[in-house]
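Database export, one record per block. Field names are fixed; values are copied verbatim from the stored entry.
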Amino acid sequence: MERAMGVSGSQRVERWMTDLGLGVAACLLLATASAVHPGAATSPPSIVLPEEIRLGLATDLERVEVACCDGPSWLVDDAGRQYEVIGSFEVIAAPGKASPGVHRLQVAALRDRVQAERLAGRLAGLLDQEADSVLDAATGLYRVRVGRFGDREAAEEARGRLHVEGFDDVWITIEGQVLEEPGFEIEGVGRVAGRRLRLESADGVVDILGRRYRGALEVFLSDRAGLNVVNAAPLEDYLRGVVPVELGPDLYPEIEAIKAQAVAARTYAVKRLGEFEGEGYDLCATPLCQVYGGLDVEHPVSDQAIVSTRGEILLRGGIPQEALFTASCGGGTELVDHVFPLLAGGGPTGTACVEGGVVTLAGGAEGSPARHLLKSLGVRRVREGRVEERLSRARSGGGLEVVGGNLGGLDGGWLDLREQGRRRLAPLASGTELLLTEVRAGAPPEDLGVPTRNLAAAPGDRLRVYLARGRVVLIVHEAPKRRDQVAAEPWSVWRSHDSVRVAAERRFPGLGLRSLRVLERGVSGRVVRIDLIGEQGAVELQGLAIRWLLDVPEHLVELTAETGDGAV
């Protein structure tokens, strides 16, 4: 794997970074590759990074309410003309001369791109009509539509034909077809011709859809005569709204892990640049691409990591690598093409996660944490008002040691802590002498937490460890802010035959699901291919599509079927 340096604009920097240096940080890339070793006979690549990247925030709106900005701001049209704007205003699509709107049939809204494209192909064959799948940037779903009918009667007839084929949930929508004189109607300004409006402010910050974003706001008129809302942001500023959401510094405060995430996120953006060009933007702002929260989610630690790695991306064979990552590795990473079939052919293998799994601790001690510490030091009687004083004296004298760090794991009877690249192994006291407590994330150091008999902690969780006479007698666990992360504990879910059948029908109308079977597991044990067996034949599912169909948190599952009369 090459780690190359790029610079925005026309300047080209040719520099090899021979050490990937990602390690087993909290950013767990789904793919790995061989390093470029010093002395290898290679030619350095020349990479030009984009100055700006466009993020789709919402699509196909009829009108956009803009409440911008704190200072002076102005609109710029396609021809470069500027219009000063003050306060709030409204933008409405004004397509002008256009062919009459056409009636289309919307058949589904699917999360998986492969399924959406496959369904569109099937619909095109059934009706001998144009069919397509278009991403809704706000929801992360692909809308599957078919046909371009001149009137509602023709659309109704086609809907009836689909109903016979088993497509029950079909509705009629209207789209513009060809925009001959595209434009916008702007409150306080009037009609402005063009397909794209750009709003810029003096302070470089814009407000839209309840969030603040760095850079400019753009409104793009789509071929469907709808308004797409876009944030055009400098690449490095874009990362400031991605990295802290994808890898929260409060959850994983290790700077090297966050630097790895910054490189991965930058590489992903460069690799996928222009993916939705026809819709007026490069990337979406949802988990389908990279979650992007704008200015309000920025964090100083993430900012530091982004600055430290400015311009750095991952290369494979001289081109940007598919730098995919996951919030949790589940004990082992997987082949990229097993999870994302569209990326087949990358070749990197999965690997075990050194820091995978959940650490379970049990403590037998009870009572007040402060009193427990004194007892562990051999101090039996202390007046209530002098407890803190005695603990402070014990810390100053070296009898009580306090160590903070991130959980690395358990090694026999030793607790593995990591802090700023250093490792500390601390011996655990016996169960009856060990007290476990939990506090909220960010609690002050004097908060010793609430006692608990059992503790399940994930690698990377923040701990405060108290050692008396060289042994760990108190572990204070900071409950992490996991946002949308899957809980680390083992889980089980039950899906009825009817619920799975309904989910399958939404994706494969007319299939008539009867059963399913696992066809293949990947190197990590994850389910990577299943067969849906129906009344009309069988359909194979791969990758994330399996997870979305079954609505489970992970692919690393055991599927147990309870059957009756041939049902799942």
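Remark 1: Residues 6-44, 482-488 have pLDDT under 50 and may be disordered.
Remark 2: The longest helix spans residues 255-271.
End of record.
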